Amino acid sequence: MNEKLLKVHMGAAKCAVDLGDGSERGEYVDQDYILSRLGRPLRSISLMYCYYPLDKEFPARISEALKDKKITHQWDYPYDDYFPYLGGLGGSTNGEPFSFMRDIRRHGQDVTLTLTIDPAVSDDHLAAIGGDLRSFGRIFLRINHEATGNWFAFNKRASYQEVADFYCRAARIIKAHAPNVQTILCIGGIEDSDSAEIVREKEFTQAVRETDIWSVDKYMALNWGYPLEMAENGGKSFFRTSADDVYELTKRSFKRFTFLNGEKTKPMVMSELNADGDVTGPYEQAEMLRLFCDKLIEDNADWLKGFTFYQFRDRGRLGLERQDPNNANIGIEQPILRTYKKLIHEEHFLPQFTFGNVEQLPVNMRWGSSEDADGLGIPLHFEASPHFCELIFDDDSNLMIELNGYWFYKSPQAKVIDLMSAFFDKPIDAPMDMVLKIFAPPASGENDLTQPDGMYNYYYILEKLPEIIIRTSPTSPSTD
Question: Is residue 355's pLDDT more than 90?
Fold first, then answer.
């Protein structure tokens, strides 16, 4: 079979799809479960954490440290009610968020770490954060997001100019210690159709120029009063707009960022996108996401490099699943999950593959990121839709495997991977050739920094192919 092996390069989609996993509104859900529900990995998984090491309550989660405090809104605490970042100066990378970051990366995805940080921390604190992130390959770092708002603790402790200056300082120091980090500036952008400028333009112009990536958070509907207020008719704790308005304001924000950067573009993403089912109900929520993505496709919006759906599982109505009130480990599927799953399997949002020849085993596979990886392709022929299709391994490889548009994860402990799920929704109705694609993200979730380019790439040598079993009819016992 060696002469038929192909080198496969995985590159970026026209528009990447990312996913939030855990926040003040929900807990982290492991990547095995998410992969089984969605049928493919995402470009990046977004985690939300806070770092306020100068506060006496830290590193406790503030809502638990002050559980008896009477609050009037979600952010009515001394610092943000995200999960505490347990790294940093004097911290450790043994706990959160690093255990989740490893889970994400071993499943062939990048990490977007949203981190709210006290602007009063010293340079040593920021350098320590950089040190924490060096081994996690390409990682997106969203520092003090929604920085032109007034709800997070960092905005209550510093002026907008001080917040903007802190962003630039933090980005410079962290990237000096971790050049693999790509910083995301998430600010209001243009929020009013009558405005020509972004929100707080004067204060944040330098940050726009210094960041790696531009971002806005946009909701087509949102109940910001959750969980203390319901979105009732005539209420004042929520809003709704349209998919068209969100699209146009985001596009205008990108153009203004470009203008402020001397007409030089940078990657533009939406770090949070959704419509709140508290406001729209579950059906219109799904419809609004579909309308927004249709607009992207119809407009061939090559200026938008990706968006993050907020989020996978939510205690309210912002999730693909809603957390079961009786059991936090169970999610109740919402109609938007089916819409999102369909969207992320459409051509506009899929990674692009290119093929070349591989002469022989062993094959040295490279993992740079979810948008830059070199793997192995095995051509297969199917006479009909299989009744039995599996791979049998005798090694401890950590692999992501794609067949017929469906992805599978093989952990180092797994020996048999059943591929039949690839055909349940996409059966074959005629003889067909397809390529089994194999990639090798890091088994530990971290890169090997002893390698010359280990901060950017992870390498794995595949010595032997799995045994491939394909049957196109049920088995029958011997008649002898």
Answer: yes
Q: Are strands 432-439 and 372-382 parallel, antiparallel or unpaired?
A: antiparallel
Residue 64 CB-density burial (10 A; 0-12 exposed, 13-18 middle, 19+ buried): exposed
C-alpha closest to that of 269 among 17, 41, 11: 17
In a domain, 461, yes or no: yes
Task: Burial-class residue 480 by CB neighbours within 10 Å (0-12, 13-18, 19+).
Answer: exposed
User: Where in the sequence is the domain holding 148, given as residue range(s)?
Assistant: 13-349
Pairing label, strands 372-382, 363-369? antiparallel
pLDDT at 228 over 90: no
Residues 6+ apart with CB under 8 A from 300: none
Half-sphere exposure of 377 (CA within 13 A, CB side): 20
Q: Is pLDDT above 80 for 480?
A: no
Residues 271 and 403 grouped into a single domain: no
Residue 478 maps to a domain: no
Q: Are strands 363-369 and 352-357 parallel, antiparallel or unpaired?
A: unpaired
381-396 burial: b if 16+ Cβ within 10 Å, else e: ebeebbeebbbebeee
What lies within 8 Å, CB to CB, of 6 at 6+ separation is 355, 356, 357, 358, 376, 377, 378, 379, 435
Closest CA to 92 of 128, 45, 64: 128
Per DSSP, 239 falls in state E
Does residue 480 belong to any structural domain of this protein?
no
User: What are the two backbone dihedrals, phi and then psi, of residue 5, each rounded to the nearest 5 degrees?
Assistant: -70, 145
Q: Is the pLDDT of residue 123 over 80?
A: yes
Question: Do 174 and 136 sit in the same domain of this protein?
Answer: yes
The reply to whether 198 and 299 lie within a common domain is yes
SS3 category, 444: coil
CB 367 within 8 A of CB 439: yes
262 and 394 assigned to the same domain: no
380 in the same domain as 302: no
| pLDDT surpasses 50 at 2 | no
Distance separating alpha carbons of residues 172 and 467, to the nearest angstrom: 49
230 and 140 belong to one structural domain: yes
